[in-house]
Amino acid sequence: MELFTDFEMTEAKVEIIVVLLEPKHEGNIGAVARSIKNFGFKQLYLVNPCELGDECFKRSKHAKNIIQKSKTFDTLEQAQNELDILVGTSGIINLNDKHHIRNPITPRQFVKYCKNLEPNTRVGLLFGREDYGLYQQELMRCDLLITIPTNEEYPIMNLSHAVAVILYELASADITFNIRGHRKASKFEKEKLFEQFRQFLDSVDYPKHKRENTEILFRRLLGRATPSKWEFHTLMGVFGRVSERLKNK
Question: What topology is assigned to 8-172 in CATH?
Fold first, then answer.
């Protein structure tokens, strides 16, 4: 029996793409490629990776084609431009509702989130460096953050193991899409809404020391909510009207 991969439904599907940011060990890249193929996924993005050699292909076993067809980028921004949603991963969380940058969901919650996505949505699962993970600025670019529940005494997992756990949850989920459901706001529309929200904060003289955290809160909130186009236009109208009225006072 074949695993339910890439969330297929007729011809429509959500595309899951593993993104490795500045991996330092070629063997880990090979092991990640093996996990990708183990669970029936197909796409790997590499951002500024180490040189790939014999060890990489040796560790990949029968997943050499995943490496051969992988795409390489110089920067995370370049890779993100080809994605609709960027989902970060981290073993370090803060458990504080007031600090949103490291407030995560679990892989199983992420599976539920995927149920609300439009078919053909390109979702990048971003994994950081083996030693330092994802830096603050990189986490801020993410629409969501996932963490794998682990023992508090040793919460940081091996890179390929973390990839395998999340892909297992995705591959084993019985997920279907309502093709006739509400049309979701596009990546471009969501970015315009973020821009409108920043202008709104300017218009109300929002305190500078709270601004970064509030902007992250809003991005993560929209990331979890997957707003429809109607909701997008409504929010754009509200923020725009308030900002305009405050300017004219």
Answer: Alpha/beta knot (3.40.1280)
